[in-house]
């Protein structure tokens, strides 16, 4: 059946009307999807890829959104402006969609059975018992173990991977011809991502559907898609087979995207560099309380017996999937949450120090957070945010402080004139630079970087990483770099600690751990991250 | 340091930061609220000088080559050639004649104070609006216009003082509960629940049997119960925000609890607080009015909008009493709500400026080599 045209989009435009005049989100794009093939639309945030996908099913907020021109033809049906009854017959039946965040895409108040049954009863008019049989069958197909028991589960009782599988089961319930997958693996861990991609590939081979795959991750595209369309600012700049686009990119933007795959290594550390921070038998245990008197009945061991050290100018990467305790570790080391075990900073154990004694040390130990939107106070101007640390520590006169703020902003690549603006006026990458400037203005010795790049596009990530490298080199900084993204860790770290469920799985020089992993879990992690190979051994379940 | 000089802006004669300048712009953008503020401010300032607008004494007297500030100081009748040591009654034709003989006097626009009994009314009071008494007189033959002016001043002052005090207490209590959580939160919450269920009206009735309620007594008693209205929202804002990354970042910078509460958390709670403040203000005014209406409020004879409403109820045949009180209250409360809306807009950084989405990421690598030029694209 290959070669059978399922969907063709011709010169599609999408406009949104805003108070400041129309916003051209998509500016005349054309592509097609055939039966049994996968077309990936790849682009960075704001490139219009999700809007294009939503307009296929006419799910945009009309009439704010409009299509000044273009045709979307699904098997002889024109979808733009099609009457609602026809669209309803197609949506979820002939063309299905899965979304990025499975927790918000599933109704939290309905059981798995009810959600999947709804699709079947709506489009197929199945009776309850028949629908139940079919639902069980589907759950089995998407690899949910113990499907019978899972039928009565609510979404919050499932893991991220299981939720995404349920979403896929819902989408496939009516054996659609076309599946639109909008960043289906962005919110899950790499090992789960590999499994989900394998599942989609298997199901495609079995059912022969076409897949329109929307992603920002070039690695996924290379391993998963047949053809690729590269989008930028509402236009498709290049499209073709994966081999031709990746092997011989024509457009300058594609080349830059491919080149922005993280390269570079951290600046070398001299052999005689002194140790600055170390931890021994470090633990972060959260008490579990129950009963009327809130007695502690047990502990969640978020971090359990970790021992490591960092030298001046060195970066230690902490790698782990969500829930592995890596963020707790960063916060615990800075004494922002309570912990046990010794933390030696410049020869002094800071574990037992009171708030007052710790205060002068706070200047030297800084942190940069993951979410560039949540880590900046929305009601302070950028200048106030960066200046705050100086004020707290009583450094300099107001004029000197302003000068230091200007220097820090310039050093992190921001225009000092922007210091009177509020954070919401900046893009994600710029906000992350502000966070870094806030830390750098105090001239720290140790910086904990808690997933500083994971909310950013790849090309912006590499800019931030370059910036971090430069700062490390200029100021001989020690980094504790926390990330789930192994590519970023490889570009940043001298030393790597792999964590799982609070325990260290493997630890050693970055090159050894990443290129020649010893522990089974690390091997699975590397396979999933670099080769998108799903785990077959059962080390990871999701 | 030329950078510093270029960004200074001015509001009236204060130098202000661009942040404040933008807030003022936002406030002005809400036309209704902006004009409401001007109208309210004008009325309030005028009412502060009520003694010069409505008084039973002249503003100034020129007598025998000397100037007498009769609206402020008290002068004996003898000063103006009369017979008694007591204060001159300027409405007395005898005194008026004495002053005219050797000088002149300037009367305020309305020659009555809130407690002046109008003499020589054509009909028994209350009388309908006329040339002499623009809004008529009440059942004790006092000029309503004068009483409204003084009553407006008293109500607004009472409301402002009560609102500011209860906001300070309420925000503080809410902040402490939300920030520290745990047992502090739990015990204060239970206390508030118990305190809230005390019936204020009965308490006031009992208290008014023991003490003579006056302005300050009423203020203290109402304050005991009105501070709770803001605790909930402030507590919720603090609870929500205390685990935000930027609060963690502040803690990592070494900021103290007080700094975090005031600088990082309080501004978040300010929008909620400011949204509630006009309502607290208007409910304070309403509380005073209703106590006066019931007769447990200010001492008899005080200029009070509630007392006027009460007269309106007991003198149904004189509708100007009730209508006047209603219109004044409605205008006052509406103005306050409109101002509150505009203030709320002014403090919301996402409003009106942020109509546009954040700028797209810049991909050019030159951003790192020319730091000074970067960020200029942010509009």
Looking at this protein, list some descriptive labels.
heterodimer; A: 542 residues; alpha/beta; six-stranded mixed sheet; 20 helices; 37% helix; globular; B: 379 residues; mainly alpha; three-stranded antiparallel sheet; two-stranded antiparallel sheet; 15 helices; 5 strands; 60% helix; disordered N terminus
Strand coverage percent of chain B: under 5%
Distance between the termini of chain B: 23 Å
Number of helices of chain B: 15
Number of strands of chain B: 5
Look at the structure and give the mean pLDDT of chain A: 85
- In the predicted model, the low-confidence regions of chain A spanning at least 5 consecutive residues are none
Give, in spatial order, the strands making up the sheet with the most strands of chain A: 7-8-9-3-10-11
Strand order of the largest sheet of chain B: 4-3-5
Please trace the helix and strand order of chain B, writing H or E for each element. Answer: HEEHHHEEHEHHHHHHHHHH
Shape of chain B: elongated
Radius of gyration of chain A: 26 Å
**Number of extended strands of chain A:** 21
| Cα-based radius of gyration of chain B, to the nearest Å | 28 Å
Number of helices of chain A: 20
What shape does the CA trace of chain A take? globular
Q: Low-confidence spans of chain B: pLDDT under 50, at least 5 residues?
A: 1-8, 352-358, 362-379
Helix content of chain A: 25-40%
